[in-house]
Every structure is written in structure tokens, then in C-alpha cells.
């Protein structure tokens, strides 16, 4: 089974094998990645954390779990410019550094194994966690509690004070949504690190994992442009044109389409 197929199969299991799906994404980029090896490393980590958790009801152990992960060195990757290894779960397990979503996926897997209730929250710009029914969110990078005031501050830091916190920002994330967001993160990281072919792998996975946005078509179209695949670029630009309601963007897309050749022998 190819890594992409294995990833999708993990998402169809009950319960969903979220971390293993993430490891198969890493295996798409590096053939030497063996998900079973990382899962064995996780088993050791699980035992270490389980031995250190306080004697509390399971519903109160999510924050101690995150704090224990932080104490063991699992922290947000602050390297600039950020590299793809911050979102590749095999590297996150090795380096103990990662993006918030990558750390959240690790925490969710450990919580599931330890029967600790915990869910992902698709907060914009900084993925968060929540104990179902709680009145606060949890930062996967250390376990800090975030109430609505802190969430508004986080949103303002990410996007500016003009963005208003809404209920949509606090929705639970499905496994498919998490894998799609991870793929978008990797797509951007590979683009930022000048690896267009790797970014294209991520861009195609984004399309396969769920509903897509205009920005997803535009991102892949730009990759096809840089890889000299005008017909594939045209396909994505036409779909972006169908989806967008922005009149300025529609004009720009139409102009860009007008500059593409009607046919091409380029292979992709």
C-alpha cells in the first residue's frame, strides 16, 4: 500500500489512527520513514507520561498531560524561517519541536491511548485543544488555558484587532480537517523552503482530503506555473474563477488565464 492510501485508510479506522495517518504523510516525503518505528517510540513516551500523571479523574488530566509533554521538551518550534520538519510528525517525535497542530496531534494520540477526553479545535492561525464541555481551550504548546479573552488576544496577534472572535473559530476539528490543515501547513512550508515538488504532493493531498477553498486552487496553480505545467495551471485557475465571489479577484484570474497558451505539450 502506498503512503497516501495508508494515510486515508488510517482515517477510515474506528477509532481514527490520527498520528499514524500523519506519519504516512511524512512517509510520502521521505521513503526512509517507517511509521511503525515512530509508533514504537510513542509507546515509550506513553509509559513515561502515564507514570508522571497525577491521581485525578480522567476529565481533569488533559492539562497535566500537556504540561508533562512540555516538561519533556515537546515545545513549539521557534526556528525562523520555519522548516517542514516542524510539521512532519516523525521529525517532531525525534526533535521534540513542532507547530501547534503537530504537537496537538501527538497530544490527541496520547490522550486517546490513556482514555483522557480531548478534542482538537480548528482555531485560525494557532491550533488549539479542548476537553469536551469545558469553558476554556488549551494551548498544545504547554497546556495554557485560554478563556474567551485570551482567545481574542490570540486572534488579534495572528490577524489584527479588526478580526472578531466568533463561534465558528471554536468548532471542534474532525480528523479529516486536521489532516487537511496539516497538509496546508506542509504545502506552505515546502513552498517557503523552495521545494515545489514536495509542495505539490501536499497541495494534491489537500484536494483529496475534503472541501477546498479558492486559495487551495490558487496555491496549486502557482506551483504548476513554477513547474511549467500550463494546462494543469489553467485547470486550477478556472476552478478558482468558478468559486470566487470577489470581483477584483475574478478580473485578475481572467487576465492570468488569458496569458496561458491554449494547449501545451508540457507533462506533469
Q: How does this model look, in words?
A:
With 268 residues, the chain is mainly alpha-helical. It has two domains: 3-170, no CATH class; 175-258, Alpha Horseshoe (Serine Threonine Protein Phosphatase 5, Tetratricopeptide repeat). Helices cover 57% and strands 5% of the residues. It has twelve helices and six strands. It has a two-stranded parallel ribbon. A two-stranded antiparallel ribbon has the order 3-4. Strand 5 and strand 6 form a beta hairpin. Helix 8 packs antiparallel against helix 9 (196-209). It is globular, with a radius of gyration of 20 Å. It starts with a helix and ends in a 10-residue tail after the last helix. 39% of the residues are buried.
Query: Could you tell me the radius of gyration in angstroms?
Result: 20 Å
Q: How much helicity do the residues have?
A: 55-70%
**Would you identify the regions where 5 or more consecutive residues have pLDDT less than 50?**
none
Order of helices and strands: HHHHEHEHEEEEHHHHHH
Average the pLDDT over all residues and give the rounded result: 95
Q: Which class do the helix and strand fractions yield?
A: mainly alpha
Number of domains: 2
